[in-house]
């Protein structure tokens, strides 16, 4: 096996790791797929914002830049990461709120008789909870798609559950538990052939796995920004609504989505275009960090980021076979890199206690039931040496 030192020496993106706070420390960070490291440049950006834009311009900032920032940054995310033309992506609200707004918009706009929401039974909990709540709220039916926890939905499995009653299908591009990478274009075609819409949850792929939302004819999408987009804890999510669907009416009618927000009149008239999906005052301060990360991904190139991600996860799988298989550890993620996102899940009955022990040693993975340790590898802030040290620490914790 090629050594970690050789892999780091050959990595064309290795120099970018120095731009992240804490990346040079001995801590092993296997949780970049949950909360990305901050960029050093963000500290200066925040200082300048407080002193100059916020402190210096005060409320004038809304006229000068802030009012348009959710759409400007949305277009940047779309261009750099999503394969989407301008005017379809916006930033604002949490992932949960944006999922609610867009799922509700889809089901409320569905033709009569389309009264089912399809979702897989191992989707991220928030997605499942929201779908159940919306179904109860609107008198709809949840159609559950059974999936293997070590993989995810396929075009064939989706075709078996969609039909003339399907309003919208809600699926994750990358499965949060296994890292399974769904075939978005093929599944989207299946849903369209059945007459439904599809909403893709991009939380575990945005910034790590390239997408082509326009070319794949995706209808709706939502993604968070605190994972591979390094926006910081609680940074706002982004939403994508294809131009052809921007007639859909979202349920949270706030003043910033009004056609003339400062008219403050007696009734609500939605703005033209994607702005209508914004509700309240945009979280401008919370957009600062992700702006730096989107710029860095643009500098590296999203295809190069994906290439590095595949190399890191492939190395983790090789090390799992070399160091952990004899201890009873199995790889609960696809071995085919084309079907795997940016993390690898390792299964063993003792993984919950192993994760707790590793945190005490400054090795930070996370745990997912049943018995899953997730190795989350944020491509631009993770080295191959870090992967090696972390996998050896897992071995030592299991053997100890």
UniProtKB/TrEMBL annotation:
Q: Which cofactor does it need?
A: pyridoxal 5'-phosphate
Swiss-Prot/TrEMBL keywords:
Hydrolase, Pyridine nucleotide biosynthesis, Pyridoxal phosphate
Catalysed reactions, as listed in the record? 3-hydroxy-L-kynurenine + H2O = 3-hydroxyanthranilate + L-alanine + H(+); L-kynurenine + H2O = anthranilate + L-alanine + H(+)
Superkingdom assignment: Bacteria
Protein name (Swiss-Prot/TrEMBL): Kynureninase
Q: What does this protein do?
A: Catalyzes the cleavage of L-kynurenine (L-Kyn) and L-3-hydroxykynurenine (L-3OHKyn) into anthranilic acid (AA) and 3-hydroxyanthranilic acid (3-OHAA), respectively.
Which family, according to UniProt? Belongs to the kynureninase family.
Which organism is the protein's source?
Nocardioides zeicaulis
Bilayer-crossing regions: none
Which InterPro entries does its entry note?
A: Kynureninase, PyrdxlP-dep_Trfase, PyrdxlP-dep_Trfase_major, PyrdxlP-dep_Trfase_small
Q: What EC number(s) does the entry state?
A: 3.7.1.3
The subunit field of the Swiss-Prot or TrEMBL record says: Homodimer.
Pfam families under this entry? KYNU_C (PF22580)
The answer, when asked if GTP-binding is one of the entry's keywords, is: no
